[in-house]
Specification:
With about 425 residues, this protein is of the alpha+beta class. The chain folds into two domains: about 25-255, Tetratricopeptide repeat domain (Serine Threonine Protein Phosphatase 5, Tetratricopeptide repeat), CATH 1.25.40.10; about 305-435, no CATH class. Helix content is about 65%, strand content about 5%. The chain has helices at about 25-35, 40-50, 55-70, 70-85, 90-125, 125-145, 150-165, 170-180, 190-215, 220-240, 245-260, 265-285, 290-300, 305-320, 325-335, 340-355, 365-370, 375-385, and strands at about 355-360, 390-395, 400-405, 410-415, 420-425. A five-stranded antiparallel beta sheet has the order 1-2-3-4-5, with helices on one face. β4 (about 410-415) and β5 (about 420-425) form a beta hairpin. The longest helix has about 35 residues, at about 90-125. It starts with about 25 loop residues before the first helix and ends in a 10-residue tail after the last strand.
């Protein structure tokens, strides 16, 4: 599972000042500002903008003095005013932006520091301490965004922290706002790629949290599963062919269907259908994905479609006939379909592979002759020759069986007291790999 990491801290620029001016209140304010007397500086800058309300520089310094005192909303508003008044194409335009970015960077990096501390506390098992640090990070990001409302990094991390705090609705709203941001312009592709990782990564985290709460808090688990389902859907809206999101969303839909239970049969059926569709899409793109093939076998069985389940079980068996589990899976499905002879036969072969005693295949003739000259086991030897492998297996009832494997021919035969009781088929294994 891909894990979304915190987006990197941003560089903090130094504050930029402009040349000296004739407004005495502006000059006096700058002196107080340089010496860290921000309240006195604000008083002077306030007088400066009252005296020369069209002076963008005065509004910029008023905003800076207010930002230093934590009067963020006022500062952001006055930075806007300064930018509005700055003559286009003049150095003041860049100066206002650089100074505003300075305050944004300070707050953003402070949020990053709180987030890292929260992760450390969480790793140490201090959930309360981690929550407090996440809350502090949230407050810093809220402040940072007042200085730069369109910053995609800050808004993305805001959504991630909401998820860390369990505020899922707020997180999803934040991510939606980020994706639909009309200011993205040429960076929309970059934003979408970032959001794809965020949605997928946070979907993974929500899914993991749901599994963690599965036993202790079923209601909470369902909440996180629903969030994961939504997050993966948002990732797929950006890239419908993102295999990880397709496969994980299918797994979440399946898990959520189990959590819904039988009290809402329609919703359960809908979720199971979503899971199946997701897995089928993945298998189209990755035909060799054995995990998905197995999930489709199990999922179709859970949905009552035993024929489709059997198809996938046979595919798994053909891909790896030496795997005992594959034989057992086919056997169980056949039993559910009331095909008892074939079902028990496949189970027998699977049990022989997993726990049977390996016999010397070169002694196949002598083993068969023990049951008499007319035994079916001896007939098999005469017809097919020496098998590639022989397994001897005893069941709980005392029955003794031999299973002969002809790997290169794609056949397995089970015998009891010389009588052939089962014949199974699978894809041939090339002779070079039979040993």
């Amino acid at each position: 599972m891909r894990i979304t990491r915190w987006l990197a801290a941003v560089a903090v620029g130094t504050l930029v000042f402009v040349a000296a001016c004739s407004n005495p209140h502006l000059s006096g304010g700058k002196l107080h500002y340089d010496q860290g007397r921000y309240d006195r500086a604000e008083e002077n800058f306030q007088l400066a903008v009252e005296e020369t309300p069209e002076n963008g520089e005065a509004w910029m310094f008023l905003a800076m003095s207010q930002a230093e005192q934590g009067k963020t909303e006022l500062a952001a508003k006055n930075f806007d005013k300064a930018a509005e008044l700055a003559p286009p194409g003049t150095p003041l335009v860049d100066t206002i932006k650089q100074n505003r970015d300075h305050f944004f960077s300070n707050r953003f990096n402070s949020a990053m520091a709180f987030s890292e501390e929260a992760e450390e506390l969480k790793g140490a098992g201090d959930e309360d301490g981690a929550k407090a640090k996440y809350e502090s990070a949230l407050a810093e990001l809220d402040t940072a965004l007042l200085f730069n409302p369109q910053n995609t990094q800050a808004r993305s991390n805001l959504g991630i922290i909401y998820l860390k705090l369990g505020r899922i609705d707020d997180a999803l709203a934040t991510f939606d706002e980020l994706r639909q941001n009309p200011e993205a312009g040429e960076s929309s592709d970059r934003v979408n790629q970032m959001l794809l990782q965020v949605y997928s990564g946070q979907g993974n985290e929500s899914f993991s949290k749901a599994i963690e709460l599965r036993e202790s808090d079923p209601v909470g688990a369902r909440k996180y599963l629903a969030a994961a389902l939504d997050l993966y859907a948002k990732a797929l809206a950006i890239d419908p062919n993102d295999i990880e999101s397709l496969q994980n969303r299918a797994a979440v839909a399946w898990e959520l269907a189990d959590n819904v239970g039988d009290e809402d049969a329609a919703r359960k059926a809908e979720l199971l259908a979503e899971a199946r569709g997701g897995y089928e899409s993945v298998l189209e793109m990755e035909p060799e994905n054995l995990e998905v093939r197995k999930n489709l076998m199990l999922l179709n069985s859970a949905m009552g479609d035993q024929e489709t389940s059997l198809k996938f079980a046979h595919e798994l068996l053909n891909l790896d006939p030496k795997n005992s589990t594959n034989w057992v899976q086919v056997g169980r499905i056949l039993l559910q379909m009331d095909q008892k002879t074939a079902g028990f036969g496949h189970l027998l072969v699977g049990q022989a592979l997993s726990g049977g005693e390996m016999l010397n295949a070169a002694e196949a003739r002598s083993l068969a002759e023990k049951h008499g000259p007319r035994s079916q086991e001896l007939d098999r030897y005469r017809e097919s020759g020496e098998p590639g492998e022989i397994r001897k297996f005893s069941d709980a009832g005392g029955g003794i069986y031999e299973v002969w494997f002809y790997w290169a021919r794609g056949h397995a035969y089970a015998f009891q007291s010389g009588k052939e009781i089962f014949a199974g088929e699978f894809e041939k294994i090339a002779p070079a790999t039979t040993e």
